[in-house]
Design goal:
- Helices cover about 25% and strands about 10% of the residues.
- It contains five helices and four strands, in the order H-H-H-H-E-E-H-E-E.
Length: about 170
């Protein structure tokens, strides 16, 4: 059906979400503008971090999940930078507004809210986790499982921490 209707081969996609996203852009005939400003590109690139993986037993029922997403506005171009004075109050922007915003912000979660957000800390960030951040449990896992010969391997991870975040990119 996708191959026939849209000319999109499902075998070229990792997930149906990617394929439906391409199908949406193709069927809407929206003209996608290429980013030519390197600062804007780097800001958007910096905002890409993926999502946290979690699981729990939960049943939710929603009809037409993909079509529900397909009626939302999709970005087609960056209109340019807005001076801080001209940014509207974020709470006054309707969820279905035609113009969305990508904001680069500094975030600090007050200490009195840490317990409230403990199960799901705000603003995940990709960064290298130093070995001295490992808990005793993590250190035991590395040693007991002989992961990488019992040595900690540095690598960029998506972490949820309460540290102050500078130049964090959010979308609305």
């Amino acid at each position: 059906m996708c191959l026939k209707d849209d000319g999109l081969d499902p075998s070229h996609y990792v997930s149906t979400l990617e394929m439906f996203n391409d199908s949406l852009y193709k069927s809407s005939r929206a003209e996608l503008k290429l980013m030519t400003n390197m600062d804007e590109y780097l800001m958007v690139e910096n905002g890409i971090c993926g999502g946290m993986t979690m699981f729990w037993i939960l049943y939710e029922d929603m009809n037409a999940l993909y079509s529900g997403v397909m009626i939302q506005y999709m970005p087609t171009e960056i209109l340019g930078k807005v001076t801080p004075e001209k940014i509207p109050d974020i709470q006054s922007i309707a969820p279905n507004a035609e113009i969305g915003y990508t904001l680069e912000v500094d975030l600090k979660v007050p200490v009195h809210l840490h317990d409230f957000f403990a199960d799901y800390p705000l603003a995940p960030k990709k960064q290298i986790v130093p070995e001295d951040w490992l808990s005793l449990y993590n250190e035991k896992l590395v040693n007991d499982k002989e992961v990488r010969g019992g040595k900690y391997m540095f690598g960029e991870k998506l972490v949820q921490i309460f540290f102050t975040k500078k130049n964090y990119v959010v979308h609305y």
